[in-house]
Design brief:
Elements: E1 15-26, E2 35-42, E3 47-53, H1 55-67, E4 71-74, E5 79-82
Antiparallel strand pairs: 1-2, 1-4, 2-3, 4-5
Amino acid sequence: MPEVPQPVTDNSVKVRQLSHYQFSWIAGEPGKPGTYTLQLVLDQGAWEEVLTLDPDDADNLQDLLANTETVHYDIERRVLMFGVTPTGS
C-alpha cells in the first residue's frame, strides 16, 4: 500500500466535488466592461473557490454546469471536470 501522509486534512484533499455555484457580475468603471465571477462551493462548503471569467467563458460554463449532474474541481490545477463515466461504458 502507498504511504499516505498523516493526518489527512482539508488542505491535503486536491480534488473536490462541486456542491453549489453562483455567478456574479461586477460593474466596471463607467463605459468599461464588467467582470464575471463564479463562486464554487465544494464538498458541501468544506472548500470554496472564486474564479474570474470573461463573458464567453461565463456563458459556456453556465451551460455545462446546468447540464452536468456531477462536477469535480482540481484545486491545485484549477480545473473543472464535468461528468463521471463508469469504466467499460
